[in-house]
Amino acid sequence: MKVLVIGGGGREHAICWKLAQSRHMPEIFCAPGNAGTAMHGRNVPIAANDVAGLRAFAQQEAIDLTIVGPEDPLCLGIVDEFTAAGLRIFGPNKAAARIEGDKVWAKKLMREAGVPTAEARIFEPTAQELVQLRQAHRGDDFEMPESVETGYKMALRYVSTRDEGVVVKAAGLAKGKGVFVHDDPADALLTLEKLMVHRELGDAGTRIVVEEILIGREVSILALVDGSTIYVLESAADHKRLGEQDTGPNTGGMGAFSPSGLLTEKDLEIIEREVFVPIIDAMRRMEIEYRGVLYAGMMMTAGGPKVLEFNCRLGDPEAQPLLMRLKSDLVDVINAVIDGTLEDIKLEWDRRSSLCVVMASGGYPGAYEKGKEITGLDDAAAVENAVVFHAGTRRVGDRVETSGGRVLGVTALGGDLQKARTTAYEAVRKIAFDGAVLRGDIGMRVSGR
Ligand code: AMP
Ligand code: GLY
User: Fold this and answer.
1) Is ligand 2 within 6 A of the CB of residue 318?
2) In this structure, which residue's CA is closest to atom 3 in ligand 2?
3) How far apart are CA 69 and CA 72, in angstroms?
4) What angle do CA 108, 110, 112 make, to 5 degrees?
């Protein structure tokens, strides 16, 4: 069988690595892929959000199964387009992916479903106001239209009345750069102006959610959903901040581990009952069928677990430790989700712990240089129980170079979290590239903010 994996990060390398072990022995394609995915199959130079290009390729190659890694193509409706063309694809359709692509919609859905989440206010201009705002931005001399000013002013007025910190969230997809946690609400005023007036994130930031800051430990709970059955996976946690002890700017994730070690069976049951079941039911009432991975970013607060956000896909880097622990055949698991037979399968997990350390380019998450030679990859791969997942890498002749912000996700299994840590860092120490940045404390926190 032929399988196409869409994306080119560490998550997609982990998916290809896992597919390569399948009893179905798939021929693997990855678009656009990286130097790591190329070790398991053929990279295809088509961007992950070029939906039409990907569809044409899948038809031409007679791809039997497509697996979508990142959120952008899902939110663009790649699943609808492939399905309409009679192609088999894994992931939620456009209507369901909105749970990640539109935070205003997701917040309203959580309220409707009674899912525990941060108290929030929503500020959104009407469709007509949005048109005016876009037009006003075409000229050099920007003048805020009267009507829009009212919406922005309402947000300003609300934030000005707060004496505690707030979180400002852009509604749309912003590559992880759309969430601003402000301990001082005065700082949030500037964020509102940047998003709503200057449109620094374009349309993604003109509708916003302002919510309370939740305090607690963060965990990532992912579930498979086949339209009706919900199968909660083993727990995971990632480290979003760039700096050790959770300091510095937010990133896509500097490391992850599984199990999270923070949750009891009972916590997981509560999350399934109070989060996954009601949210899927609420979507079904709207005739939206969810099929794929549903990821709940949770804060374990003193008042119980609360949802920070939903994602419509596997987490990156959470996928790396999770897939290393998954013993079941990934093709069988994905087929069960697509065919609605999740109820009939039981996932097998390695009882050991797994931990992933991300090595990033100097400057990430801001500007960084590319094209630095990476050495020591073979030595690292030779470390027992370690796998080096590539993210922003490319092969140039016989060398492997950096080509992205997050470059590698060095992942290891161990009898416990500590052992997995030791092995992952042992492999990390074999690898070098100019300007490499990594955290030395992955798996060590986990602080309460
Ligand atoms: P999100 O993309 O919504 O998960 O936000 C990115 C990160 O911002 C989360 O992983 C949290 O670390 C942080 N965050 C989001 N919402 C809140 C909140 N209400 N309180 C505290 N931190 C938050
Ligand atoms: N690691 C966080 C995410 O995938 O969104």
Assistant:
1) yes
2) 315
3) 9
4) 70
Domain 217-447 sits in CATH at: 3.30.470.20
Q: Which two tokens stand for residue 293?
A: 């991975």
pTM of the model: 0.94
Fold annotation for 2-93: Rossmann fold (3.40.50)
Q: For residue 169, which atom of ligand 1 is closest to its CA?
A: 3
Q: How far is the CA of 317 from the centre of ligand 2 (A)?
A: 7
Dihedral (Cα; 49, 289, 280, 336), 10-degree rounding = -80
Q: Mean of the per-residue pLDDT values for the chain?
A: 94
Residue 33 CA to residue 250 CA, distance in Å, equals: 24
Residues 414-436: tens digit of each pLDDT:
999 999 999 999 999 999 999 99
pLDDT tens-digit readout, 126-147: 777 767 766 766 665 666 666 5
Ligand 2: distance of its center to the CA of 238 in Å?
A: 8
With 0-12 CB in 10 A as exposed, 13-18 as middle and 19+ as buried, what is 285? Answer: exposed
Q: Please tell me if the CB atom of residue 110 comes closer than 6 angstroms to any atom of ligand 1.
A: no
Same fold, 2-93 and 217-447: no
What residues does each domain of the chain span?
A: 2-93, 125-206, 217-447
Q: Which of 117-131, 171-185, 219-233, 254-268 has the weakest average pLDDT?
A: 117-131
Smallest-distance ligand from the CA of 307:
1
If one residue of 100, 219, 293, 318 were mutated to test the ligand 2 pocket, choosing by the most ligand atoms within 8 A of its CB, it would be: 318
